[in-house]
Each structure stands twice: as C-alpha cells, then as structure tokens.
Specification:
The protein is mainly alpha-helical. It is 52% helix and 10% strand. The chain is built from twelve helices and five strands.
Length: 277
C-alpha cells in the first residue's frame, strides 16, 4: 500500500472518529441534567492540563482502546448475550462534573452482570441473588467496565478521575466531600489503586480529594499504570467482604451509627427525587 492510500485511510478514520464523538456528545447532552436541588459547592480552578489537554488525551486513549481491543469488546458482548440475555449494556445514572457548583447527572454504561430475576410481587431480587458467577468474573477482571469508553468519548467521563458513585451516595456526602465532583469522573482514580472497596468510605473520598489537588499528566499516567497492574495482573475485584456489591455510603453511615434513621430516610428520598423516582 502506497503512502497516498495510507494518508487517505488515516484521514477517513480521523473524520469518522470526530463525527462519532460529535454524535455521542450530542446524545449525552440530551440525557444529562443538573442536580438543581442540591446545595452548590465551591468551584475549583483548573490547571492548564485539565482545561486544554486532558480531553485530548482521553479521546486518543479511549478511541485507541476500542480499536485495539475490539475483538475483546465483541467477545464479552457475545458472552453477556448468551449467559444473561438482553440488554447487553447496563446503564445507570451517576453524578458527574459540577456546573455552577452543582453536579450533573449522566448515564454511565457497563456490560450487564446481573439477571433480571424478580419475586412474586415483581420486585427485583437482592443483588447477591442476581449476580451470577459469570457476572462476578466480569467484575473481578473489570471487563464489565469496558463500555465506559463510550462515556469517555462523549465527554461525561475521563480515563482518570474520581470514580462516579451512585446518586444515593452523593446525597450523603458533605460539601467538602462533594468537591470530588469538580473533576470529571474517571474510569480509575487514586482510591482504586489505594484499596478500592477494601477501604472505608471516608478514606475513599479523601483519596479523591487528594487527586483534585494534584491533577496532572504524570499523576494520571501513574494511576493508569497502577490500575492495569491491580485490575489485570493482580486481579483485585470490586466486591467487599462477603457482599455481592460495594456497600452504599448511606448504608455504611447508618450501620455505624454516624447518621440517624430519620436522616437516612430523608437523604434516600432526596436521591429518589433527583432521579425522578
């Protein structure tokens, strides 16, 4: 193949990538909304890397990962379809980057790891009953998180940043802890390479606050390298103790007597309101 053809192919791929990103960004804008009912937190001054370079790095890394690991994406999708059925992708609303001090709520994509089994009243069974052996394996290898590259391409997530928690976790955070949302949520962050779900919630959130104070290319590069080592070499899973999934922040606070049942119920109601449920 001559150089002219290579340039044409490269140019076509670049244009296709830009068009795809544009479409994904527009779609994300339609499904993303602001958490207007929460109290605003103080915005943070962004460094040059975070303002102008990080997004470019995110696009290059996520687009490159999709191209290189396309057979893996297809293989996992087929396995999910065969073992768990449709839909293959699982979407969930998560709190993202703040605007005017208030979190935006976006749709995060993952490969499905649970069944839709329900009880006689039509209610979903507990997580531990629906999380299959195959689903546990997907989580232990972090392969369920591969579709989050869609979030990185559409701009709702970054490769590195505080992990996006649940909306029902966000409402229990203090204003100081919510400052973690002044950085775009990431596929991995400092908390993930320093204990993941084996550390207390307060420590996890403290690692996130340390990250937003030291955002930089070298920091992100180190976190990315450590993430690959822990997730794929050491195969550190996401489960916590004998629990099928990590304990919610509100449940953690209530079980340790750090909040009252009344406070717990009030915050859970606030989360449902934010989600329109």
């Amino acid at each position: 193949m001559n150089k002219k053809k290579i340039k044409i192919i490269s140019g076509t791929m670049a244009v296709s990538t830009l068009v795809t990103i544009f479409v994904l960004e527009k779609k994300a804008e339609k499904t993303t909304y602001q958490a207007n009912t929460v109290e605003a937190v103080e915005e943070r001054k962004l460094c040059i890397y975070e303002k102008y370079i990080k997004r470019i790095v995110d696009v290059i890394c996520s687009a490159g990962a999709i191209v290189v690991f396309l057979p893996l994406y297809i293989g996992v999708a087929v396995l999910v379809k065969l073992k768990l059925g449709s839909p293959v992708l699982f979407t969930q609303e998560r709190p993202g980057l703040t605007k005017a001090g208030k979190e935006t709520i976006f749709k995060m994509y993952k490969f499905r790891t649970m069944t839709d089994e329900r009880d006689e009243n039509g209610e979903l069974l507990p997580d531990e009953a629906r999380l299959t052996r195959f689903g546990k394996w997907l989580r232990s290898t972090s392969l369920d998180e591969l579709p989050e590259t869609i979030n990185i391409l559409n701009g709702t997530m970054s490769v590195i940043g505080p992990r996006p928690q649940l909306v029902r976790d966000m409402v229990f955070m203090t204003k100081e802890q919510r400052k973690r949302h002044t950085a775009k949520p990431g596929l991995s962050g400092l908390a993930q390479i320093n204990g993941r779900n084996d550390i207390d919630w307060e420590d996890k959130l403290e690692w996130d606050l340390k990250y937003i104070q030291n955002v930089g290319f070298l920091t992100d590069l180190k976190i990315a390298a450590d993430t690959v080592s822990k997730a794929f070499v050491k195969r550190e899973g996401i489960t916590e103790g004998d629990m099928a999934t990590a304990e919610d922040f509100g449940d953690y606070l209530l079980s340790r007597g750090k909040i009252s049942q009344k406070e717990y119920d009030s915050k859970q109601a606030e989360a449902r309101e934010l989600l329109g449920k």
